[in-house]
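It would be a great kindness if you could assist me with a short task in structural biology. The matter concerns a single protein, recorded as an amino acid sequence and a row of backbone structure tokens. Kindly check, if you would, that the fold set down in the tokens agrees with what the sequence suggests. Thank you for your consideration; the sequence and its tokens are set out here:
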Amino acid sequence: MTQQHPITPPPELFVKWLAEAKRLHPGESTGFIAGEVARLAYQTGADQELEACCEWLNGGSKIDYDTAKLLRAARRPKPPSLKEQALEIVRGTPVNSAGLYSYEDVEIIRRALEQLDD
């Protein structure tokens, strides 16, 4: 008899990951889909471990709570907003010597500007 690891995902969660990977990447190879499921599983396990560590830290004083909050922020930083990304691009040096930005940079700036209407 094999023993399961304590954070082995339930079969329903595995099926959910598989469906999500197929939905986000239609037509991709089986290997690609398997890699995406592995990534989701790895991310979920890492998130569970982080939350367990933060919960353990939260067991004590206000200092412990603040430490847990800092740990979570350091280990799962929020991605920069579209505005922050656009400002970083504009404040930086253009991609080439002619002073032109890449297509990706222009798209980020365009999307940030479009949000101004919202």
User: Anything to note?
Assistant: Helices lie at 11-24, 30-57, 62-75, 82-91, 103-115. The CA atoms of residues 53 and 104 lie 38 Å apart. DSSP finds five helices and no strands in the chain.
